Amino acid sequence: MPDYPQLLHTVLDATDVRELAGFYRELLGLQYRTGDEPPTTDIVDDADWLVLTDSQGRSTLAFQQVEHLARTTWPSNEVPMQLHVDFTVSDREALEHHHARALALGAEVLLDRTDDADEPLYVYADPAGHPLCIFVAEGQEATAQRG
Questions:
Q1: Which of 44, 92, 106, 140 has the smallest CB count inside 10 Å?
Q2: In the chain, which ranges are continuous DSSP H helix?
Q3: How far is it, in rounded angstroms, from Cα 139 to Cα 84?
Q4: In 3D, which of 143, 135, 75, 61 has the Cα closest to residue 99?
Q5: Of 86, 82, 69, nearest in space to 133 by CA
Q6: 92, 99 in Cβ contact below 8 A?
Q7: Euclidean distance between CA atoms 102 and 17, whole angstroms
Q8: Distance spanning both ends of the chain, measured CA to CA
Q9: How does pLDDT run across 10-57, given as a tens digit for each residue?
């Protein structure tokens, strides 16, 4: 049986890794990998690579410092997305709750498709400009209601 590579985490470039890691940490309820927490003293935070983990300590997202990052121009293809991340929620109420949280954390709405009966969603740009979607997946809302 072949031993296949396993996904460790998704890495996002950022001109401010601490800001972007903080955005996703708050949005997704993740925590910093041990040693990646923000400094608690007047020490300058010179982090150029940060990792977030889930509640079991599994690596989920990482952030890599870059000097320049061109924001996507999506839906125009002038500067393509190159990558985006999708997150699902259980129902429309949860979608609106997390929509408000995403905005408060600094996300910018790129597309509001909440009128779609099958798959309501928001597309955002995170603080670094990376696109992300939060949506109720088709059939997920009905499954959650039957729960």
A1: 44
A2: 17-28, 92-104, 140-146
A3: 22
A4: 135
A5: 86
A6: no
A7: 18
A8: 37
A9: 999 999 999 999 999 999 999 999 999 988 877 777 889 999 999 999
Query: What does each C-alpha distance from 103 to 62, 108, 113 come to in angstroms?
Result: 22, 6, 16
Cut 0.70: pTM above it:
yes
Q: Is 88 helix (H, G, I), strand (E, B) or coil?
A: strand
User: pLDDT, tens digit, for every residue of 120-140?
Assistant: 999 999 999 999 999 998 665
Amino acid letter, residue 89: V
The secondary element (H helix, E strand) that includes residue 107 is none
**Six-digit token string for 31:** 């925590």
CA separation for the pair 31, 26 (Å, rounded)? 9
Of 94, 125, 103, 118, residue with least CA distance to 14: 125
What's the residue count for the chain?
A: 147
